[in-house]
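Notebook entry, structure prediction.
Reason for the run: the old model in the group folder had no record of what sequence produced it. Starting over properly, with the input documented here first.
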Amino acid sequence: MDLKIEEIFKEAVEIGASDVHLVVGHFPVLRIEGDLKVIKKWPMVSKENLEKLLENITTPGQRKQFLKNKETDFSYNLGKLARVRISLFQERGNSCLSARIISSRVPTMEEIRMPPIAYELARMDRGLVIVTGPAGCGKSTSLAAMINLINQEKAYRIITLEDPIEFIIPSIKSIIVQRELGSDMNSFHQALKYIVRQDPNVIMVGEMRDLETITSAITLAETGQLVLTTLHTPDVVQSINRIIDVFPSSQQTQIRVQLSISLRGIIAQRLLPKVSGGRLASWEVLVNTSAVTNLIRENKIAQLRTVIQTGAEEGMFTMDQDIKRLWKEGLISKEVAMAHMIRPQDLI
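New structure, fully documented this time:
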């Protein structure tokens, strides 16, 4: 029995797996509701079989890039069933594949239970909105849902810069242009350099990865566009520290001023196992009020957590407060809540 990549992907979709992992010398592995499950109904992955699979799903350009860089990312289409975000890399001289299953339908903000303040942030005319959290927590899904809300409500020109394109978002009221790293642009920074000439109202940057991209995103947010983007940081406070720390010390005072002006809000998220099965998101939200602006400018970032804890009227709350809410509503167990809270003693 040979491994057939489309069959693996299709079964992953059918049983609700989020990820597929193929490693030479191991059986295929699926991540289901956050846990890894070895699938022994398929044969063990061999070097020859995996190379054959990769040849069937990659273009000559993608194979060339993989051979040169030893890793590459791209998307694969399963028709109306789903899209797959694939990461290829090498391990001990062998190719490895990790794939994220992405629904073909763009979710709504209601379906993923985004907090009410997220709707206000998505409806902003300009400024910087950041969605943050660890890898695999659904940041791309949240951005797609926010773009979808704008698409349904406003006649805007929306340009997305992605690596790779995940959700295909059809234009409704807005005109949506989706560009993929590698095939449509050489870098986020280069694309952002020219994007103003393309008349965007909303710009979505898949991830702020480096100083140049962060600088461009903040500048664009200052000059009249709504910029939606992500960071790989666990919470709101660390997101601000991460942005500032990317810059040389000589530039950090200036970037704090720029960030304090351009930032509209930060949404941190994390996926937790539900009592009833499956997973749901817990959230933390910072809204850029005058108090937040002053703390960022004065480099008193550590005090932001207090502002978030007491900022309910502005739509703010901490991750601990939201996890406690989910537990009180019976959506997660006490054990899960305590395992993910910074101060689990507050649950008692």
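Summary: The first helix runs from residue 5 to 14.
The old model has been moved to the deprecated folder.
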